[in-house]
Amino acid sequence: MKVFYKKKSLKNRLEAIRKKHLKIGLVPTMGALHSGHYSLIERAIIESKVVVVTIFVNPTQFNDREDFKKYPHDIEKDLMELRSLLRKEDMVFIPDNKEMYPEPDLLVFDFGHLDKIMEGSHRPGHFNGVAQIVSKFFNIIKPDLAYFGEKDLQQLVIIRKLVEITNMRVQIIGCPIIREPDGLAMSSRNQLLSGEERKEAVKVYQALSQAFNLADKIPVETLKKNTIGFINNSSILSVEYFEIVDGENLLPIKKWIKNKQVFGCIAVKAGNVRLIDNIGLMNKQYT
Ligand code: AMP
Q: Please, what is the angle between helix 126-141 and helix 153-166, to 10°?
């Protein structure tokens, strides 16, 4: 694999690749890589001739300065692991802030209701920042395929919308959530959990699994209340939101609907660490 720090040299290299009509797959990450990221990269390796992994903790998507400051970094470990996974022709792009934002980005996106709910309403400006950086990467790298995790379901839906409204020709591939053996969704932020918080965090998945078992059996509102109550019973965890939504447009549903993908989406605070997760409750078949 080859490591790039500058847009210009990455672009030059990609230009040569494009002349050979080789398929380019992009996996954007914020580093502190784990098996969730590697599952995206492994799929990209199968489907693309050249994979570009980006590692950049994007400041414009953090609404909370403290969250940005304490976001985990381990570039040496990331590079070591990527070296054993990626092929000779694959690339890692590690720009700094100046490289990505030589000037403040003034782009403002309108995703309608999609960025006003769930993560959007709890993290104002978050998805605008995500759209800014992802569209920059799409413009620089011009990938044929780009891989995103279903772990961040709302982000995945918004990126699909971004591609639709900007007419970019990249194909967006959603990849399933990778979990720890006890069910906790893998996340770079998990390493910020204390021992006790980590033990309690498993309740998020337990609650989602219970919701899965009860979907379509009890009313939507009762299921929401039960799920939130189960987690809030812990003295360490507190639910920010739990919404049961139509997987296509992320609108909350009031009644169970057959023949539609329905997801339960949750955000939980464990101490100062924010955990997000989701589960397909009906007709799970997202990618
Ligand atoms: P991040 O570094 O957290 O921005 O994540 C980079 C990409 O990896 C995003 O598309 C995430 O949705 C995806 N991702 C993160 N955690 C997981 C996971 N546990 N399973 C699957 N994909 C994940």
A: 60
Q: How many CB atoms lie within 10 A of CB 13?
A: 16
Where in the sequence numbering do the catalytic residues fall? 37
C-alpha span between 58 and 133 (Å, rounded): 7
Spatial CB neighbours of 226, under 8 Å, sequence gap ≥ 6 = 210, 211, 214, 218
> From edge to edge, which strands make up the β-sheet containing 262-270?
237-246, 262-270, 273-282
25 lines ligand 1 (CB under 6 A): no
- pLDDT tens digit string along 244-254? 999 999 999 99
Low-confidence ranges of the chain (pLDDT < 70): 284-287
What is the pTM (predicted TM-score) of this model?
0.97
Among protein residues, the one whose CA lies closest to atom 5 of ligand 1:
29
Could you tell me if 266 and 245 are in contact, meaning their C-beta atoms sit under 8 angstroms apart?
Answer: no
